[in-house]
Amino acid sequence: MKQMRLKKQKRHxxxxxxxxxxxxxxxxxxxxxxxxxxxxxLVNRIAPADSALSNILGGAVKVFTTRCxxxxxxSLGESYSESLKTARELxxxxxxxxKRKSAVACMMEVVGEKNPEHFFLATQxxxxxxxxxxxxxxxxxxxxxxxxxxxxxxAFQRQFAKSTxxxxxxxxxxxYKMLRTKNTLxxxxxxxxADANESEGDQNGGTQAMRKANDxxxxxxxxxxxxxxxxxxxxDGRATLPLDLWCKELSVTIVSGWLKVxxxxxxxxxxxxxxxxxPLSCKKKKNLGLPTFVCKSESNDxxxxxxxxxxxxxxxxxxxxxLEATNG
Length: 328
Fold this sequence. Notes:
This protein is α/β, with parallel strands linked by helices. Helices cover about 55% and strands about 10% of the residues. The protein has 11 helices and 10 strands. It has helices at about 1-25, 35-45, 50-55, 65-75, 80-90, 105-110, 125-130, 155-170, 175-215, 245-275, 320-325, and strands spanning about 30-35, 60-65, 90, 120, 140-145, 145-150, 235, 240, 295-300, 305-310. A 6-stranded mixed β-sheet has the order 3-2-1-4-5-6. A two-stranded antiparallel ribbon has the order 7-8. Strand 9 (about 295-300) and strand 10 form a beta hairpin. The protein starts with a helix and ends with a helix. The relative contact order is 0.07.
C-alpha cells in the first residue's frame, strides 16, 4: 500500500511540474468544481475539500464554482441540498453569459480555448473530461471512492507544449520585421557617419595643402610630429646603455664570476683529495740536525769538498775470472 501511495504521489508531482513549466500554473492553485464532484466529496466523506486537494497538488489551493452549477444543484431537489450548501461556501467564479446554462456548457465557456485563468477542473463527468483533454493547459481531477486522482496530460496537450516550445526558439514574423528595420536603420546611420568623416578628411587635407603652399617649401625634410627618444643613463657625462639594460648586464657578470670562482674552488678541492697537495704551494721542511749521508773530503787545493754517497751499486769486473778459467 505504501509503495502504491508513493508511486501515485510521484505521478501527481510530475503532472503538476509539467503544467507549471509548460503552461505557467502558480500557487495558490485554482480548482474549479462542478456539482458531481462536490456530491462525490460529501458521499465519500472527503472533508475538508481544500486540504484533500492541496495534498494532491502539493501546494496551497483555492476552490471555485459557478452560478450555473449552483442553479443546477438547486434544481435537483432535496437529495442534493447538502451539496448545494457546501457549494455556496466556495468562491464563485465569474461566468459572463446572461441566461443560465448547463454546468457542462458553463465549464467549457469558463475554461475557453486556452484556459487563461489556469484552472484545475474537478468533475466526475467522463464525457466532460474527454472533451477537455483536447483543450491545451487544462489539468483534470476526479474522485475514485475515497481517493482523489490527477489525470496525466493527454497526448494532444504534450504535443501542443512541444510545438509551443519549438516556436519560442524561432523568431516570429513581427520580430523578424522589427530586426530587419533595425538593421537597415543602423546601416544608414553608419553610411552617414562614414560620409561625414570623409568630408571632414577632405577639408583637413585641403587646409594642410594650403599651409604647405604658404610655407614655400621651406620646411622640406622637416618632420611634422615630434619624435621622442628613449632616455639613456649617463655615467661621467657620457651616454651609455639604458639603465635597465646596464643593470641586467652587471647582474649577469656578477653571477657568471661567482660561478667561475665556485667551479675553480671545487676543482681544486677535488684534485687535492685525489692527488694530495700541490708541492709548489707547500713550504719546505726545516733541517732539525739529523745525520745525513754526507762526508767532507779535502781536495788538492786544500778546500773542503762534500762527497755524497750515491745509491748506485758497484759493478765488479769479471775479466779475471774468465782469464783464470782459460788458463786452467
